[in-house]
UniProtKB/TrEMBL annotation:
Keywords: ATP-binding, Helicase, Hydrolase, Nucleotide-binding. This is DEAD/DEAH box helicase. Pfam families: DUF3670, Helicase_C, SNF2-rel_dom. InterPro entries: DUF3670 (IPR022138), Helicase_ATP-bd (IPR014001), Helicase_C-like (IPR001650), P-loop_NTPase (IPR027417), SNF2-like_sf (IPR038718), SNF2/RAD54-like_C (IPR049730), SNF2_N (IPR000330). Gene3D superfamilies: P-loop containing nucleotide triphosphate hydrolases (3.40.50.300), Tandem AAA-ATPase domain (3.40.50.10810). CDD domains: SF2_C_SNF (cd18793). Residues 710-867 form the Helicase C-terminal domain. Its EC number is 3.6.4.-. One of its GO terms (molecular function) is ATP binding. Transmembrane segments: none annotated. Residues 431-587 form the Helicase ATP-binding domain. It is an enzyme of class 3 (hydrolase).
Length: 883
């Protein structure tokens, strides 16, 4: 592996079932010490055994965030083993489950990573189950104790004993707490582990001093570090139930970290464990509705002191300051009186009141307080500051987070698509966000119809008001958008802005939508002179780098509202997230320097990730194909037509070939005419694929083929999610150029399979593609790969060129869509707009006199039966402006 991974980082891609590992090139420090290579090698052999032993290692600052997070899960599992008091008794039969606190900490600390949408409590519990199976296999044949096994792999692990310390509240006022020491032992009659008072051990292990000493070893360690425990041991009171004063209980509670460090498990009241009754400042933002909409709308806020869930006055807080440190019983609750913390809290509260008097904050500033409210108030770390939404802002964000609560958007008869329920909810959400003046990111999974949802919104706007809307897309998507607008909203008037030299009337009230490219957004400066009602970015990852001229030009566009579309929400780079939101809602995440300071703080406290999510999630609508609760009616195989535009070189060659064919047809008859037509069809297909295929050249530049550009658009999303794809072509000579192009997109080699691939080699290729190592793509010639292969690791199929035989195409698709496939399969059929490919596709699928079974049975021979005029209509490109 060596040189292949030098200068690269190991990242983790999380999936619905578990996780995958992959090496990527990345800026910044990288691990070249071989450790990550070893992890990867172990992963290929047994993923969960690798994960289990990863839990014994120390983390490294050079690791990717995703690997660090996976390490956190593994460490938590090993820690739970070490804290299971009956582990020596249960061994391979142990059931290890995450604690409630552990689950919360893991999820709060989850960074922005690939597949983060799959990580929830259920995912962690399922991975714990698989790790438990590994532990059982490893400990079953181990001759020593579990403690010896753990310490053998990490000498720093703190293994707990079998002793518990319990503290509970007691109703008696003089001694309001009770203490009891217990130990875990096996009830042989009922065959289960039970807890019993520690004094019982004196009888169970009578005359077995070595076992008594081993059991009490953790207590001895605690007695050496704690005067309180030492006195209980010396007096013998440790072996009996005890009544404690509040002072004694406070001493015990403060010393819990010491006891746990010595290996004693402590069971204590929840109010102390979770600091439930602690003092905090609650800052509610946006209690009342502002007088205007948009991110600049002004919101009020109000600070309030709370003790647990009850309000506390400033006078009551000052009264607490008069008491000594310790436990105090106030308003029916025990709380900790810490003079330093009380003073810090009072100071922060007074600062908050001062801010209230200085004026209101706009929505972006108010929401941003959830990220850096502590910095704003300059509060001490020990002050519990809770910033939440007031009544109005909460009602708004609840709808942003739950589109089902938003009223339905009427679309009218002029909108020609039938939307699924989730798509209509998406339209409602986009309209709601636009009406509020908020920037919105529609981040639905690939194939769920982001385009049609935006077109529905634009059609609704057309029907209700006059508006100037701008859509910015990659040049390769021009044909796709044009086709979908014409299909779904034929009355929507749009203007394609292709050239910086072209004079475009941006004030034309008859145009509902101007469509241009990212490159044109840089060159066409007059786009920045218009105050747009709505600016929409498709493939919005194009502005992820805030320093590029392209990103800066797009961000200079003025608009009342903005929408960003992306199938891959920001993953693995928080700077990408900031750049996207700097376009959508400037100021929401602060300026670049403020956000950088915040992200640096995540290294010390990863709980900041949950704060960041709470701020950005209301502005992102993300639905997954895998979520049956949201999308119950999706087919398991989704087929879509993906349109590519001809490049200039393709268009010239295509038009020239049409002219030549028209001339030759005049003098051709019979077999010669049929041969001419069939040969021409092949040539047209070659030109649509790539000019170099037709010309017999071998450069295969991406810019010269619309299909190569569309292939890149699709496959970049597949790569970002670390999924796999099958690409079919009917031309064996195209398998190599397509594979070379994909290798640049996926940053690694894939596989090719064609008629010349030996049978034995085919089996090896299938095994490799379906294996644990990430092999992103396989390019197959349609005849060679259409039958007999099981390639269920892929959940994407791309038909690069069309066979015009649905049965053959479906047979090829079924290499992935077959028994054993656990994911939805997406089928992309590439079609070059305006060419013979689009026209024949229309004949096959449309209400044409041409029956599909004729096409299926005779392949392309039926075309030779057309007369000359019909043939020229089939081959000729439409004139500019024709649909």
């Amino acid at each position: 592996m060596g040189n292949k991974t030098k200068g690269k980082k190991l990242i983790v891609c999380f999936t619905q079932q578990g996780f995958k590992l992959d090496f990527i090139s990345k800026k910044g420090p990288s691990s070249d010490n071989g450790f990550e290579e070893k992890i990867y090698k172990d992963y290929l052999e047994n993923p969960y055994k690798m994960l289990f032993y990863l839990g014994f290692t120390d983390s490294d600052k050079s690791w990717s965030d995703s690997l660090s997070f996976l390490h956190t899960v593994a460490v938590d599992f090993i820690t739970n083993i070490s804290k299971t008091a009956d582990i020596e008794l249960s061994r391979e039969n142990a059931v290890i489950i995450p604690s409630e606190d552990g689950l919360g900490k893991i999820l709060d600390g989850m960074p922005f990573v690939i597949g983060q949408e799959f990580i929830n409590a259920k995912w962690i519990e399922e991975n714990y189950r698989k790790l438990t199976e590994v532990f059982a296999d490893e400990i079953k044949d181990y001759s020593g104790t579990v403690e010896e096994f753990l310490l053998e792999h990490n000498s720093e692990i703190n293994v707990v004993g079998r002793v518990y310390f319990h503290l509970v509240e007691n109703k008696l006022s003089e001694h309001p707490f009770a203490f009891l020491a217990t130990y875990s032992t096996e009830d042989k009659r009922q065959k289960k582990i039970i807890n019993t008072p520690l004094k019982n051990a004196l009888y169970e292990f009578k005359n077995q001093d070595d076992k008594i000493l081993n059991l009490l070893s953790t207590v001895s360690k605690a007695a050496e570090k704690s005067e309180f425990i030492s006195e209980l041991v010396e007096s013998g009171e440790l072996f009996s139930p005890l009544k404690l004063t509040s002072e004694e209980a406070y001493t015990f509670l403060k010393e819990i970290p010491t006891y746990e460090e010595c290996g004693i498990l402590c069971r204590i009241p929840n109010w102390w464990k979770k600091k439930r009754n602690s003092l905090k400042i609650s800052l509610k933002v946006g209690e009342d509705e502002p007088s205007q909409v948009g991110m600049d709308a002004l919101l009020n806020f109000s600070p309030q002191l709370y003790l647990g869930d009850e309000k506390l006055t400033e006078a009551e807080l000052k009264k607490l300051l008069a008491e000594t440190d310790g436990l105090s019983y106030i308003k029916g609750k025990w709380i900790e009186v810490d003079q330093d913390k009380l003073r810090s809290t009072l100071e922060a509260y007074e600062k908050a009141k001062g801010l209230l008097q200085t004026g209101e904050y706009n929505i972006a500033e108010a929401i941003r307080m959830q990220l850096n409210g502590g910095e704003l108030l300059n509060v001490e770390e020990d002050v519990d500051l809770e910033i939440s939404n007031g009544q109005w802002l909460e009602s708004v964000t609840s709808k942003m987070n739950r589109p089902r609560l938003i009223e339905t958007t009427p679309l009218g008869d002029d909108f020609k698509a039938k939307l699924r329920n989730y798509q209509h909810e998406g339209v409602n959400w986009l309209r709601y966000m636009k009406d509020l003046g908020f920037g919105a990111c529609l981040a639905d999974d690939m194939g769920l119809g982001k385009t049609v949802q935006v077109i529905a919104l634009l059609e609704h706007i057309r029907q209700t008001k006059s508006a100037k809307n701008l859509l910015i897309i990659p040049a390769s998507l021009m044909g796709n958008w044009q086709k979908e607008i014409e299909n779904f909203a034929p009355k929507l008037k749009y203007k394609m802005v292709y050239s910086s030299k072209e004079e475009v009337d941006l004030q034309n009230e008859n145009i509902n939508l101007y469509v241009t490219t990212y490159g044109m957004a840089v060159r066409k400066e007059e786009l920045q002179t218009v105050k747009w009602d709505l600016v929409i970015l498709d493939e919005a990852q194009a502005i992820k780098n805030p320093g590029t001229k392209q990103t800066k030009s797009v961000k200079q566009l003025e608009a009342k509202s903005k929408i960003a579309l992306t199938g891959t929400p920001i993953e693995n780079s928080l700077s990408d997230l900031w750049s996207l939101f700097d376009f959508l809602n400037p100021g929401l995440l602060g300026n670049a320097q403020e956000f950088k300071r915040f992200t640096k703080g995540l290294k010390h406290s990863q709980q900041g990730y949950s704060k960041l999510r709470s701020v950005v999630n209301p502005f992102i609508l993300r639905r997954l194909k895998t979520d049956k609760k949201v999308i119950s009616d999706l087919p398991e195989k989704m087929e879509m037509k993906t349109y590519a535009s001809l490049s200039k070189k393709q268009a010239v060659l295509y038009s020239k070939l049409v002219e030549e064919l028209e001339e030759k047809l005049q003098d051709s008859v019979g077999i010669e005419r049929k041969g001419l037509v069939l040969a021409s069809i092949t040539k047209f297909k070659q030109i649509c694929n790539h000019p170099d295929q037709y010309l017999g050249q071998n450069t295969y530049s991406k810019a010269q083929s619309g299909k190569f550009e569309r292939l890149q658009d699709i496959c970049e999303t597949i790569y970002n999610k670390r999924e796999r794809v099958l690409v079919f072509t009917q031309f064996r000579e195209m398998t190599g150029p397509i594979a070379d192009h994909l290798e640049k997109i996926f940053n690694r080699k894939g596989l090719t399979l064609h008629g010349g691939t030996p049978a034995k080699k085919r089996t090896e290729l299938v095994e490799k593609f379906n294996g644990q190592e990430y092999v992103p793509f396989m390019v197959l010639s349609l005849k060679a790969g259409g039958v007999g292969l099981n390639l269920t690791s892929a959940n994407h199929v791309i038909h690069f060129d069309r066979w015009w035989n649905p049965a053959v195409e479906n047979q090829a698709t079924d290499r992935a869509f077959r028994i054993g496939q656990q994911k939805n399969v997406m089928v992309h059929k590439l079609i070059t707009s305006g060419t013979i490919e689009e026209k024949i596709d229309g004949m096959i699928t449309g209400k044409s006199k041409l029956a599909s079974d004729v096409v299926t049975s005779s392949k392309e021979k039926w075309i030779t039966e057309l007369d000359n005029d019909e043939l020229m209509e089939l081959f000729t490109l439409p004139q500019a402006g024709e649909s």
